[in-house]
């Protein structure tokens, strides 16, 4: 769920503020027990989401999976305690997720990563290396399609041998080939003199 | 064997973490498997989490899971079903996500200091299976179940009961992880340094 060219007023607020507000909001939502107040905040969260001009195409999938979980929770809670309690809990979760969606969908992936990096920057003092972290994160994104391709190749090859349904016949080559890719990449980085020595002050 | 502060092994560690994080993410992109006997479809994602711990050891394994969690919270749709974004953490299933990090940590530690030191093949398999079940099922549920209970207001017992539907799939994945990890460790010696 990424903000795709969202240009609303929410997109202009600093991610740190949005994240902080979300944290405070969710904690306070847990302290509210009256359904009137929760209904009010639920309406507020919808208004916020609508005012942020979020594309509903992006929201459809997460909303559907959320609705599925929440309906199970609703029925279980209603049967176990009482229906008023069930409404309060489901309303609270729904509100919280809608607020979270409006933060996620108005913040670009880069801005979010930058925020996480800022939050993690104190780790530098116990020996973490920011350059190393950035390299790891960007390499992960690059490797995802690569590994999906490897998986499809391996499973196709094993299908041809009649082993397509054997989890071991697929996983072992997948892991070995992934390790080979990792070794080759590490060697290539070293050969090009990529300096990953620990950060020194 | 290069020491930990050696820059060569630093780069290698980072690449290993990235590749396994990508593997966990790629497994989330694959359609879930349905086995005839088990009603709940099995997503492969926790298989990746278990493998990362069992193959890379505690720190690199936990970091691989952490990378996936960070990237998906930042907004990439890496979790099974194309989920991602901050809503996942605040929803009822957020605890399982946090549990992944500690799950791979525990599996990695047990593999490094216990499983791989056993010589006997049978003992190795049994200890490996125990380790993966402990880290990949017990530890992950230990985070996931109370989180569900806290966010929804369902009792701990009901939350646990709800998660039991995933248990057969998780046990199946634990068996696969143990077999794969022991096979790979045999041919790729010194993976954990």
From TrEMBL, chain A:
Membrane topology: Multi-pass membrane protein
Main localization, broad class: membrane
Pfam families assigned to the protein according to its UniProt record, in alphabetical order: CbiQ
Membrane-spanning parts: 15-32, 63-80, 86-105
Keywords: Membrane, Transmembrane, Transmembrane helix
Entry keyword annotation includes Cytoplasm: no
Localisation per UniProt entry: Membrane
Superkingdom to which the source organism belongs: Bacteria
InterPro entries per record: ABC/ECF_trnsptr_transmembrane (IPR003339)
UniProt-recorded name of the protein: Cobalt ABC transporter
Organism of provenance: Glutamicibacter nicotianae (Arthrobacter nicotianae)
Upper classification of the organism: Bacteria, Bacillati, Actinomycetota, Actinomycetes, Micrococcales
Automatic annotation (TrEMBL), chain B:
Highest taxon of the lineage: Bacteria
Entry's transmembrane regions: 12-30, 36-56, 63-82, 94-115, 122-144, 164-184
Its membrane topology: Multi-pass membrane protein
Gene3D superfamilies xrefs: 1.10.1760.20
Keywords for this protein: Cell membrane, Membrane, Transmembrane, Transmembrane helix, Transport
Pfam families: BioY
InterPro entries: BioY (IPR003784)
Keyword Zinc attached: no
Coarse class of the protein's main subcellular location: membrane
Family: Belongs to the BioY family.
UniProt protein name: Biotin transporter
Organism for this UniProt entry: Glutamicibacter nicotianae (Arthrobacter nicotianae)
């Amino acid at each position: 769920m990424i903000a795709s060219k969202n240009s609303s007023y929410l997109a202009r607020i600093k991610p740190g503020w949005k994240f902080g507000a979300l944290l405070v909001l969710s904690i306070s939502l847990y302290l509210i027990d009256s359904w009137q107040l929760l209904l009010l905040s639920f309406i507020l969260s919808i208004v916020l989401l609508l005012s942020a001009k979020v594309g509903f195409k992006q929201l459809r999938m997460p909303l559907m999976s959320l609705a599925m979980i929440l309906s199970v929770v609703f029925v279980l809670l209603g049967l176990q305690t009482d229906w008023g309690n069930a409404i309060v809990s489901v309303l609270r979760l729904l509100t919280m997720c809608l607020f979270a969606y409006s933060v996620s969908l108005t913040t670009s992936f880069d801005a979010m990563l930058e925020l996480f990096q800022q939050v993690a920057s104190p780790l530098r003092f116990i020996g973490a290396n920011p350059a190393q972290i950035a390299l790891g994160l960007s390499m992960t994104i690059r490797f995802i399609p690569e590994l999906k391709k490897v998986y499809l190749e391996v499973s196709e090859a094993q299908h041809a041998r009649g082993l397509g349904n054997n989890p071991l016949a697929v996983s072992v080559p997948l892991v070995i080939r992934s390790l080979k890719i990792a070794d080759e990449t590490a060697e290539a980085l070293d050969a090009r003199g990529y300096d990953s020595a620990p950060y020194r002050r | 064997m290069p020491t930990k502060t050696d820059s060569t092994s630093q780069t290698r560690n980072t690449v290993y973490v990235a590749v396994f994080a990508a593997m966990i993410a790629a497994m989330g992109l694959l359609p879930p498997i349905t086995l005839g006997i088990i009603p709940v479809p099995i997503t492969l994602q926790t298989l990746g989490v278990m493998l990362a711990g069992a193959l890379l050891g505690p720190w690199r394994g936990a970091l691989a899971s952490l990378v996936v969690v960070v990237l998906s919270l930042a907004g990439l749709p890496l979790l099974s079903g194309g989920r991602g974004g901050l809503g996942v953490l605040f929803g009822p299933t957020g605890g399982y996500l946090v549990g992944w990090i500690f799950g791979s940590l525990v599996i990695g530690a047990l593999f490094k200091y216990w499983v791989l030191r056993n010589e006997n093949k049978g003992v190795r398999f049994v200890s490996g299976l125990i380790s993966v079940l402990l880290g990949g099922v017990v530890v992950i549920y230990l985070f996931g179940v109370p989180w569900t209970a806290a966010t929804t207001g369902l009792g701990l017992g009901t939350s646990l009961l709800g998660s039991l539907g995933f248990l057969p799939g998780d046990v199946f994945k634990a068996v696969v992880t143990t077999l794969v990890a022991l096979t790979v460790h045999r041919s790729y010696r010194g993976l954990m340094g």
